[in-house]
Amino acid sequence: MAYIESLNIYCTMRNGLYVNFPTINIMDYFRKDSVEGEYCDKGVYDKITITPKISDIEYLRSFKFLDLTYRGTIEYRSSCTQPIKDVLCVGAFQLGLKNKLYELEEIFENDEVIYHRGYNASELRKLFVKRQLPNFVDEDKLYTLIKQILDLSKEGLIERGYGEEVFLESLYERVKNRTNPAKDMLKKLGQDKSIEDIIDDYGRLK
User: Fold this and answer.
1) Rounded to an integer, what distance in angstroms lies between the CA atom of residue 11 and that of residue 202?
2) Helix (H) / strand (E) containing 36
3) How far is it, in rounded angstroms, from Cα 154 to Cα 75?
4) What is the pLDDT of residues 8-47, one digit of tens each?
5) Cα 186 from chain centroid?
6) pTM of this prediction?
7) Secondary structure class of 110 (helix, strand, coil)
8) 96 class by beta-carbon count within 10 Å (0-12 exposed, 13-18 middle, 19+ buried)
9) 119 vs 82, 132, 161, CA distance in Å?
10) Strand pairing report for 35-41 and 44-50
11) Mind listing the pLDDT tens digit for each residue in 91-108?
């Protein structure tokens, strides 16, 4: 209960439409008489004022790095959504590191690219979700670190002996091109590509 009370809520539904509003602590949300938000209906955004309801708690999202769902599955919420053709890369990457935790910890303990710079994990996450890398990060060294961790995951998968390392190929391609799905999407939006075309690209099987 204490953990749930610490979470923030940022969306709910009204009349079959998602309503988004500035993130707010769940307890503060229920103390409010009304909340200002917005919704999109047939491509048009509009403002809306809603009254918090106890049923809105269904739209409360946990952001723990690992979460056990009501279906009995484990979700790695620290990983962003992947294009459909690469959907297995996240699970493979995590699985490969599962039996290499000692080596992974050693990498992080000796790292000076992003760690040991005076920032904790939460602060680093906020710095790295922006379009530009933080000023203190050397991009060449960052991608060397990423490849080192990716190689460690691959080693773990090879040791399992099921050929699962093939699912890491898309991640190696991203390291080579210094990109990721979010960067690719932003680039396409900057080229005036329609959201429908981007969704089609995202859903391709090959």
Assistant:
1) 24
2) strand 35-41
3) 21
4) 999 999 999 999 999 999 999 999 999 999 999 988 999 9
5) 15
6) 0.69
7) helix
8) buried
9) 27, 17, 38
10) antiparallel
11) 899 999 998 999 999 999
